[in-house]
Design goal:
The structure is a single chain. The chain has 184 residues and is an alpha+beta fold. The chain has a single domain, classed as Aminopeptidase (3-Layer(aba) Sandwich), CATH 3.40.630.30. It is built from six helices and seven strands. A seven-stranded mixed β-sheet has the order 1-2-3-4-5-7-6, sandwiched between helices. Helix 2 packs across helix 3. The protein is globular, with a radius of gyration of 16 Å. It binds coenzyme A. The site of coenzyme A has 18 residues, from strand 4, helix 5 and helix 6.
């Protein structure tokens, strides 16, 4: 498996045609059961997100074929990321952002026939390699196998969140990147 990190905005934009079929296949699976509308939302989101300063994309290529990808970006100072909690109300000092403090793992996906061989770990590690933020965060559906997988990677629960009305409930998770205390 070969891993390639893309940080250039133009190059990251050009990769979208490669990411789309992998996203579609992976998130059609339970518990996501995503369809064409969700894939269209992903395409629209990516077209905005890849232009964010600090955006990083990592591709896992198996003999030239895309086996998985991960991407993420830093939270902006005016982010709404730390809203929508159902069971906790993190303090201002915890939710304060300045564009550098927190890196978000936005998507991490490995094709089903490539899982269980360390590709997910390698994508995750390559994505964070060189990130200078204090902490990394992500949201994950509690019923997804990835929820416990992230715990094994050292992520701690912040709380349960519902980002918009009618959205599924997600676990908001956080992990220190530089020996920081990240508890809410
Ligand atoms: C979550 C996901 C990315 C993990 O990908 P993966 O390639 O199977 O991950 P890994 O192979 O690194 O880890 C899976 C297991 O394989 C094991 N493994 C096998 N060989 C390994 C190796 N060489 N190096 C590291 N781990 C290895 C690991 O121990 C790990 O076991 P664990 O689950 O007990 O920790 C993948 O299941 C996926 O795409 N799921 C659907 C999408 C999703 O839910 N994404 C996350 C939410 S956005």
């Amino acid at each position: 498996m070969e891993y390639t990190t893309v940080t250039d905005t133009t190059a990251a934009g050009r990769k979208l045609d490669d990411l789309a079929p992998v996203y579609e296949a992976v998130f059609a699976e339970p518990p996501y059961l995503e369809g064409p509308r969700d894939v269209a939302d992903f395409l629209e989101r990516y077209q905005r997100e890849h232009k964010t300063p600090g955006f990083r994309l990592v591709l896992a290529l198996d003999a030239g074929r895309l086996a998985g990808f991960a991407y993420g970006l830093p939270l902006a100072s005016n982010t709404g990321w730390w809203t929508g909690f159902l069971d906790t109300d993190p303090p201002d000092e915890f939710t304060r952002e300045d564009g550098h403090r927190t890196f978000v793992v936005m998507e991490l996906a490995v094709l089903a026939d490539q899982r269980g061989h360390g590709v997910g770990h390698a994508l995750h590690n390559a994505l964070l390699d060189g990130v200078t933020a204090e902490r990394v965060t992500l949201t994950v559906r509690p019923e997804a196998p990835a929820a416990t997988w992230y715990e094994r990677l050292g992520y701690q629960l912040v709380g349960l969140t519902q980002p918009w009305d009618g959205a599924p409930v997600y676990r908001s998770m956080i992990k220190p990147l530089r020996n920081q205390d990240v508890s809410a």
